[in-house]
Amino acid sequence: MSFTTSDHSSSTLQKRTRLAEASGHVPPLPKVTSDLILQVYTHISLRRSGGLAEDYGDNERLIQLGKAAVDAATTNALFNKRPFLKTSDICCKREEVLSDINVDKWVTLYNMRQKLRCHPDVFATLNSPKVIVCSMKTCMGRLIKL
């Protein structure tokens, strides 16, 4: 995943996403072991009642770790952009880069939605921005723990 930092970061991301889709060349996600991949792509709706986080992992914790990691990486990329951006511009551009629309494109590009396992009752919510963003943040949180 690359973070664009130009004045038109949203349009640049769209162009890169279209190019990646058209060429079939998408940078691979890091390899994750089978136990970890199950934790990343298992929705909280499948958590066993009474099950301990130690037994099954805790995606809610991974979401928080992933959010912090993605925010920090994006902020760092914007911080190092030349010419220097004002603090307010860094904040605005970070929000733009990490918008639900862009995250949805990344989730789609990496087929994350199709990999997510959930209870049938919540299947219809898999296209909601909240679930999409949580899926991406869970994946990023897991990568930090590798």
UniProtKB/TrEMBL annotation:
It comes from the Eukaryota. Residues 1-26 are annotated as: Disordered. Gene3D superfamilies: Ribonuclease III domain (1.10.1520.10). PROSITE patterns: RNASE_3_2. SUPFAM superfamilies: RNase III domain-like. It comes from Sphagnurus paluster. This is RNase III domain-containing protein. Residues 16-144 form the RNase III domain. One of its GO terms (molecular function) is ribonuclease III activity. Residues 1-14 have a biased composition (Polar residues). InterPro entries: RNase_III_dom, RNase_III_sf. GO terms for biological process: RNA processing.
